[in-house]
Amino acid sequence: MSSKDTSPAAFAGNPRPIVRPVLDRARELGIRQVLDADGALAGDLPDPDLPRETLLKMYRTMLTVSAIDARGWKLQRSGRIDFWIPSRGQEGSHTASTMAMEPSDWIFMASREPGTMLARGATLLQLFAQFFGRAEEPLKGRRLPLLLGDRSLNIVPCMTIVGSYIPHAAGAAWAAKIKGDDTRFIVYFGDGATSRGEFHSAMNFAGIHKPPIVFLCQNNGWAVSTPNDRQTASATFAEKGDAYGVRNLRVDGNDPLAVYSVTRKARDEARELGPTLIETVTYRLGPHTSSDNPDLYRRSEEAEAWRRWDPIPRFRKYLERRGIWTAQEEQQFLAALELQLDQAVHAAEAMRQTAPAEMFDDVFAQPTRLLQEQRAQMLADLAGEA
C-alpha cells in the first residue's frame, strides 16, 4: 500500500477466519453452566434458587449497564465524553460475581464493570459525573471514563496499566488474613492481563500464602486485537492456576446464575481453602474502546454468532419461565431508565469540571517541592497560552 492510498481496501485489515463460540461446546470443554442458550435449566450446575428480589436486582442492573453503554457511546461520538470502554456482552459476568460477594468484601476493579458500582449502590449521577470528569465525583474527575472506584463502597479503582493491581489485591487479602478479620476479596482482569508478570507474581504469592481472594479473569476472547490463541499456548486461562497451587475452574460468563454460584462458593471457601482463579468465558460484542475498530481483526459474523449467548435475553427467558418478569415490566423499566439517564447526564454535565492544577492535589499528604514546582510551571504554561 502506498502512503497515498486512501481506498476502502487499503484500510480493510486482515480479520481472522470465523471462530465459533466456545460456549457451543461448554460441557465438552468443562465450562460450568446452569442455563442453556435459551435460558432453560440444562447445565451441569443446579439452579442456585436465588430470592426473587436478588434475581430482579441482578437483571435490572444488567439492563442498566447495557443502557449506560449505549448512552455513553453516543456521548463519546458526539464529543461530550472523551473516551469510552464498552461492556456490551459482558454484563452478566461482572454483575453476578459482584452480587455473590458480601458488601463488606473488597473489590479491585478492571475497566468493564459498571454493574459492580451499581450493585454496590452507586447512583447514575455518580457514574456520569465520573464519565464527564467532574470534580464532585469520588475520584475527583481525574481518571479516564469507566476507570471507576469508590472507597466508601469498598471498591478500589482500576489502574490504566493492565493487570498491575492484581498483586495489590492479593496483598490486601493476605493482610486481612494476618489480621484475622473475615473480609474477602475479588479482583477483576481480562485475558490479556495473564500475559503480564504481575498476574504470575500474584498467583505465586497466593498459592503460597492462601489469601481469601477470588481472581476473576473475564476472558472475552480478545486482548484488544490479540485473540486467545495468540495470547497463550495453554488450553485455558483457568489452568494457569495449576502451576501455582491455586484452585481454578471455567464458567460460562454469559450465564449469571452459573457465575453467581461458582463465585459464591469460591468466596465462602476462601477463608479455609484460600484463593480461586475463575475464568468466565464471555465475549466482547463491541469494540475494545471508542478508539478501536474490531472489523480490522475479526469478522462481524463471529460477533453475531455470540449473540445467541447474549446474557441479557438469555437471563430474561429464565425469569419469564419462572413468572418473575414480563415484557410489559421490561418496557416500563426501560422507559423509566431512559428518563433517569437523561436526568443524570444533564445534572452531571452541569457540574464543575476538575481544574488542571487539581491533578497535583492528594498525591501526598503534604505536597513536595517538586510537585509545587511542576504545578507552578504548568500554570505558567497555561497562562502563556491564554
How many domain regions?
1
Q: Would you give the CATH topology?
A: Rossmann fold
List segments where confidence is low: pLDDT < 50 over at least 5 consecutive residues: none
Report the count of strand segments. Answer: 9
Q: Mind telling me the CATH class?
A: Alpha Beta
For the largest beta-sheet, the strand count, sense and barrel status come to: 7 strands, parallel
Shape: globular
Q: Strand order, biggest sheet? A: 1-8-9-5-4-2-3
Summarize model confidence as the mean pLDDT.
Answer: 95
Give a structural overview.
The protein is globular and about 65 Å long. The longest helix is centred in the first third of the chain and has 26 residues, at 52-77. Helix 4 crosses helix 11. The chain has one domain: Thiamin diphosphate (ThDP)-binding fold, Pyr/PP domains (Rossmann fold, 3-Layer(aba) Sandwich), CATH 3.40.50. It starts with 30 loop residues before the first strand and ends with a helix. The chain has helices spanning 52-77, 91-99, 114-119, 124-131, 166-179, 197-209, 228-231, 256-273, 300-306, 311-321, 327-349, 369-385; strands at 31-32, 106-108, 155-156, 185-190, 213-219, 222-223, 226-227, 247-252, 276-281. Helices cover 40% and strands 9% of the residues. Strands 1-8-9-5-4-2-3 form a seven-stranded parallel β-sheet. The protein is of the alpha/beta class and 386 residues long.
Structure summary:
The protein has 386 residues and is an alpha/beta fold. The chain has helices at 52-77, 91-99, 114-119, 124-131, 166-179, 197-209, 228-231, 256-273, 300-306, 311-321, 327-349, 369-385; strands spanning 31-32, 106-108, 155-156, 185-190, 213-219, 222-223, 226-227, 247-252, 276-281.
